[in-house]
Write a structure and sequence with these properties.
This protein is an alpha/beta fold. The protein is built from 13 helices and twelve strands.
Length: 309
């Protein structure tokens, strides 16, 4: 079964509904040969959307090397902001000082192209900017100039919550990357209807909520703990069954959400690529099951269950 594709909003790009997220291979220091295998199997299965970022450790270099011979087969996305500078003297808490300064953003884009081994990316995105960055014309101009110079075909933003709604309303961005999952549904009402109206291409990040329901105990890290806490209260019936079926239901829920074009899933294991490809090529979720998950969220979700970056 082939992985379906969708037209990515007003960009006109044809993207696979399953994309690959590059954070895990960077942060977990995956070997190059393993990344080669992961991405080789992903592309062979029909995945063509690849997303990474400068701050994902060595992710850009790993992905660039793995895809060097298949660059024209993919829609390649990376992010600027939260720049990582290799010289220790330029670091501040692990990140560059003045990381949203226009000169730093411009340099970040050039570094990303070098690491990826390409002359251009299909989409260059702001990476979780503060509202002040969105309202800074000089910062926005950096992305626009990169597009004009041919360094990026389109510009986007990775963001959640009310700031994401503001980013869409600005009419500047071609794409939006935002959290959408069974444990993170704020965007469905707050942001996605506006994105549909403006023809914004939408990538769902964390579409299976990090599969935190597999943990018997609450995780200690700040990144996954909110989803674990939410799912304890949501107590969906489908999470009590087979783990693989639960992943399939969660992923199908995200992809069935109006306005979502693709969902990015990262992995450090080549065999997981095959499993995920089978899931998205399946029949999807029944409308009654989708509605049940939405109704449970409306009944249980607290006001502070906002989109998680």
């Amino acid at each position: 079964m082939a992985i379906p594709r969708r037209i990515f909003g007003k960009t006109g790009l044809s993207v696979s509904v399953l994309g690959f997220g590059g954070s895990e291979v960077g942060y977990q220091e995956v070997a190059q040969k393993t990344v080669d295998a992961i991405l080789g199997r992903a592309l062979d299965a029909g995945v063509n959307l690849i997303d990474t970022a400068e701050c994902y450790a060595d992710s850009e270099r790993l992905i660039g090397r793995a895809l060097s011979k298949r660059r024209h087969d993919i829609v390649l996305m990376t992010k600027c902001g939260h720049a990582m500078i290799e010289s220790a003297g330029d670091r501040a808490g692990g990140f560059a000082r003045d990381e949203w300064d226009p000169a730093m953003l411009s340099a970040s884009i050039d570094r990303s192209l070098q690491r990826l081994g390409t002359d251009y990316v299909d989409v260059i995105q702001f990476h979780s900017p503060e509202r002040s960055v969105l309202d800074n014309d000089e910062a926005i101009a950096v992305l626009q100039k990169a597009r004009e110079a041919g360094k990026a075909r389109f510009i986007g933003c990775s963001l959640d919550g009310h700031d994401a709604a503001h980013a869409v309303a600005m009419g500047v961005f071609d794409t939006l990357q935002i959290s959408v999952s069974v444990a993170d549904q704020q965007a469905i009402d707050l942001v996605l209807p506006k994105a549909i109206e403006r023809g914004v291409g939408v990538i769902a990040k964390r579409p299976i909520a990090n599969a935190v329901w597999k943990n018997r105990r609450a995780p200690s890290d700040w990144y996954t703990r909110p989803y674990w806490d939410r799912l304890q209260k949501l107590d969906y019936d489908f999470l009590r069954g087979d783990s693989s079926e639960a992943v399939a239901t969660a992923l199908s829920f995200t992809l069935a959400t109006p306005g979502v074009h693709s969902a990015i899933v990262g992995t450090t294991r080549p065999e997981n690529v095959d499993r995920n490809a089978v899931l998205v090529a399946g029949k999807g979720i029944e409308q009654s099951s989708y509605d049940s998950i939405r109704e449970r969220w409306r009944k249980v979700a607290r006001k502070d269950w906002i989109g998680q970056r």
